[in-house]
TrEMBL record:
Designated name of the protein: Transcriptional regulator
InterPro entries for this protein: Cro/C1-type_HTH (IPR001387), Lambda_DNA-bd_dom_sf (IPR010982), MLTR_LBD (IPR041413)
Pfam families: HTH_3, MLTR_LBD
GO molecular function, one term: DNA binding
Domain HTH cro/C1-type intervals: 1-46
Source organism (scientific name): Micromonospora sonchi
Source organism superkingdom: Bacteria
Length: 246
């Protein structure tokens, strides 16, 4: 975005924006927030911009255990429970597991204990050779998909922790080779997760749900990753698994 484009979108003169950029004029907190809004910056980055301008942060950042976030946790729990018997997890901005429904146990069965000890990072659990990776039948494809998402998130948030996680995961094995192509309806529209459970091949597609209009840094980083069965065999297996755990 050019300086002129940004000035038009933010409703400020290009001359004043130029003065702000070169340090000849000090922006008001309102202007900082307006520019951050137009640049679609994460809330944490907006707070850092305000601090750099000499102002107090505008967005709070609560702990998930704080009473203020109790309704958010309750809402997420309701979604996770309602998604059963299909797997779903609530993760934070660094892909750490906050909560999961019982169906997730089907995917994590066989993972080494050190990957299941809190704090659990779901990307590390997915791609680590001691985790889910040996049972992901289309690992190169799924790995490329997750790394692309993580790289985009790191670039958007400018979060060093996400860049470090990306470099760690990029070093795991499994990036070479190709999964056997499957010409089914789901594979033509989304990237499926093809997963081996015992002697069965299961197929999932996933959705990501974010909280709308967040005003808290922590809430803005939360997401629900939900997995849906992509074929009748997977549907039947998940229902059978849920009955066995009941």
């Amino acid at each position: 975005m050019s300086q002129l484009d940004l000035s038009i979108e933010a409703g400020v003169s290009a001359r004043h924006l130029s003065f702000v950029e070169t340090g000849r004029a000090r922006p008001s907190p309102e202007l900082i927030l307006r520019l951050a809004e137009q640049l679609d910056m994460p809330l944490a980055e907006r707070n850092r911009m305000l601090l750099a301008g000499g102002y107090a942060p505008a967005y709070p950042s609560h702990e998930l255990s704080d009473p203020e976030l109790a309704p958010v946790r309750a809402a997420a729990r309701h979604v996770l429970d309602g998604h059963s018997p299909y797997p779903a997890v609530l993760i934070d901005q660094h892909w750490r597991l906050v909560e999961a429904n019982p169906a997730v146990a089907l995917l994590t069965a066989g993972a080494e204990p050190h990957l299941l000890t809190p704090p659990i990072n779901v990307l590390r659990l997915s791609l680590h050779p001691d985790g889910m990776a040996p049972r992901i039948l289309n690992l190169p494809e799924w790995r490329a998909h997750l790394l692309h998402r993580l790289r985009q998130q790191a670039a958007t948030t400018n979060d060093p922790a996400l860049y470090e996680l990306h470099e760690e995961l990029r070093g795991y094995p499994g990036g070479n080779g190709h999964a056997a192509p499957i010409n089914d309806a789901v594979s033509r529209v989304v990237i499926p997760l093809r997963y081996r459970h015992n002697d069965q091949e299961l197929s999932f597609f996933s959705t990501t749900t974010l909280f709308g209009t967040p005003l808290d840094v922590t809430v803005a980083g939360l997401a629900i990753e939900a997995f849906f069965p992509a074929d009748p065999t997977t549907t039947e297996t998940l229902h059978t698994f849920a009955l066995a755990k009941a």
